[in-house]
Fold this protein.
Amino acid sequence: MELIDEQAIQEFTIESLEHIENIEPDLLELEEKEGTASSEIVHRIFRAIHSIKGGAGFLPFEALKKLTHTMESVLVRIRDGEISITSPCVDALLNSIDRLRYMLTHISTCETVPIDQDLKVLETYLIQELNSNNSDSSDLLLEEISHDFHSIVATSVLKATQEQGNFLYYIRLNVGEIPENWESVIDEMKTVGKFIASSIDPLPGLDSLQNHDIFEFVFASVLEPDLLETMLPFPKRCYCKFNLKSWPENDSKTKNIPVKTESIPAKTESENISDQSHAQPQTVRLRLDTLDHLMNIVSELVIVRNQINQTLKGYEKTIPNLRPILQSYQFVMRSLQETAMQTRMQPLGALFNRNQRLVRDLAKKSGKKVELKIEGSEVEVDRNVLELLNDPLTHMLRNCVDHGIEVPEERRRQGKSEYGRILLSAKQLGGQISIVSRDDGCGIDLDLVKQKAIKNNIINAQSANSLSENEVIDLIFTPGFSTAETVSDVSGRGVGLDVVRCNIEKLGGTIEVESHIGEGSQFTLRLPLSLAIMQAMVISSGQQRYAIPQLNIDELLVIEEHQINDYIEMIHQDPVLRLRNRLLPLVRLSEALNLENYYWDELHKKLLPDNRKILTDRRSPVKKNHTQKKLDEQRKSSRRIRSENNTKRIVVVRDGVNLFALFVDYWFDTEDIVVKTLSQNAASPLFNGATILGDGQVILILDASGLASQLRLNFDTLHVIESERRLQAEQKKKQSINKEPFIIFSINPNERFGLAQKCVFRLETVNKGDLQQIGEWWFMHYNGGGLPIFELNRVVPVRSLPEEQNELFVIVLKQDGCSQNEQRPYAGLLVSSILNVKDLHPDWEKACTPAPGVLGSISIDGLITQIIDPYIVIEKIGGIPS
Amino acid sequence: MLYCTFFLKKVRFGIPALNVREIVSTSVCTPVPNSRSDILGLINIRGQIIAVVDLKRMLGLKPACFKSNLPIILLKTESELYLKPCDKSALSWLGAEETIAILTDGIEDLVEVDDNTMIPVPANTGSLCRDYLHGVVRDQKGMIIVLDLGALFGTDKLEPAVYS
């Protein structure tokens, strides 16, 4: 054992664990697709298991080898179609995978892990009866070599190949046996060996294959038969290994091999396609600290670059060529920085896949049927974020399955499909990612939440009644809260969602919950893309600069001297900011930090000491000397002296739901800052890190919640939420005033249109037979006259009405600009169905198919709806026939 | 043992030279409001942010004031001490987890002193915080007060003193 290289073992375990990570989603997919699963997946699983087995073979891990070998055997039978894929079979394989994982993570004691149970289960699948007869008659095959083929194979080539240490295989396929993904099979085979000869050119000849009933070729590879077996997607009886001795003597010394070895598979475009599928980026394993170190060096380099830029700024004219050099330097540095950042990014896919298994197992355990749909697994996040995201995500999904999705009977009773759906999706929006988990379960029962919270002594009965909806939902994040009636091993212990929130907030993110009873709930996580670099605003207070994360900034306010009384009010001694119907506590940052007060002097363009203690003080910030004071006093009788240096800069800071206004001396730009952890010695709750600016100075990053608690801000959350709600209601009201009803209709299914209801006189149904075509117009009898009717596709590029539909709708329009009394039918628009009437806010996006008459498009219920102005359309087709 | 000697005011102090990573000076130091009072602030040493300790305050002297270009001693961290093979038994302190910077009023020299000549701190040195003093040695130039880095910056990692 000591002889075995520790490093080799370590590499083996890491690699094997990676394989296992890949196998799991494949197995799940296999189960999902059941009978229809492509052999590609089985092969992938097989290969992964096989490489683990291979590794274990080199190392003294007998148990591992045994287990993988048995799994492999089961997979062979699945592949050959001898046994079908069933849920218990996948279960057995998954359990074995778990066992494997356990063994690999406890590699030193893996030999003592009991595997008999797993072996036993797996073996039942080995002895299960054959699905089909499968005769192994490989040696007979050689005798069946067709003469035509035999004659084209040069024995000398075979001999030479065999002497190079290759095994020779004769492969013979009936046309029906050729797998669908033939080109990639050929390609894959080419990576492990080469084609010596074949009866027809395999690739371009695929079509001509139809004319042959069999297809023969000789393939040479260093792989032994049982290894090759894993590669070849055709049954064993189709090929055999042979020795040159057993190859029938070749009398005709054909030198002209019609198909050159190198030209198989011929270079066609199909090869390019399969090349792409093979072109997986090559990877190397790197130590994490090396990467972190690289990242540090790069960020140092960024700082040095900034210093160089600052130093050389003035010399651009005096030193020739300096500018282009600096520019290309800048460019190279930026791409270096981006690449270094990229090394830390990992796709969310791995994390999502891990949870797929979890959801499946949970659903099974609780007797529910759950379908997990994953979107956006390609979104990449910093690996630190990824690690911290694991727990919250697990808890969230657990919650979905356990509390959200109902049991199948219940779902059926409610008229939902038996399968509960959970959508897990990730999206990148600017510097943030949002992860949404949405289920169509029962939603959160607010009353139940209240009751439980009272029962668990989280709130008392009186305060429960005064809670708003949001606050009740908020209760589910309190530690010790659980609505589950019984404690299961899944959930119910009251530890869960508080962990979610805690972890998310640690990452500088937020979590939102939306829930409708009976319809399901939605959890939205918003996270910064990277912990290492974030957007922050550099502000100044008390002659020091600080950074405020952009995430925490709600808005910036500049209050001019004459506006001060409109915005700032005093409640006793404490200033408050009046901001759009809200009162926000207003605090001076320098006070929180025990710093001197300064102000920005526009005249001198620098910060000068400020003597005013009260924010609403509008006198000059500087103490006047004696003579000046006298002068002021003289003037005082006529008017009060006010200083120009009174502009107030206020940052509205957001800490969760709480807002407060921070009065700062000055602000600079928003920058991408590299976050460095604060030394333990200098730790302070006010800051959550430090960064280095371009000029090399260290500045501290302010922590919003630390600041709030330092300033002893007592947030009455209820009040804030209440006022927020009021604001929202007002906004809604305002919006609905501008809203107009629109009729949503379609001409061909999936193509949706809308037109303002005010243009519509009536909606009518019409039979195709009742329409009469005259020229380009249709006519129908309406109100004792003929109503001209047109189709939209005369002007707007849309598909025409479905031919087979007999009963159609006509949107009868009234004349444009007519008063109420004069309204009469004007023209009709022929459509296939009327869907809905919606109140829409007229702020369209650009039209998908810009055409005269299309005002724009808007998304309604997830479908793009194009808004039509019928009058423009009529005008375009030359007005209505008189 | 080799000591690095430096001044706080006019007083000569010494710390084991093995514990010293480098001596730097910077022009700016960013104060950290609301943190420990014996932290002067943060400095940027080639991209690394390091907290500067006010040793004078820790020792009970009049608190220091940061001035640009005063020499700052950076101490080796635990991992840095282990990075290069050296005689661990010669160390009185195995370093902290983070780099520590000490603001001084001046660096003097490296002095080789026979540790056997080290004597305990005299009983009447009440003006300095005795907990942080390890002993006193003499060389040609006079007395050196040897500091107990373990007591100053990390007690749990302290190894018992190896002096007799």
Notes: The radius of gyration of chain B is 15 Å. Chain B touches chain A at residues 28, 30-36, 39, 41-44, 46-47, 49-51, 53, 97-98, 100 (CB under 8 Å). The CA atoms of residues 25 and 70 of chain B lie 6 Å apart. The first strand of chain B starts at residue 2 and ends at 8.
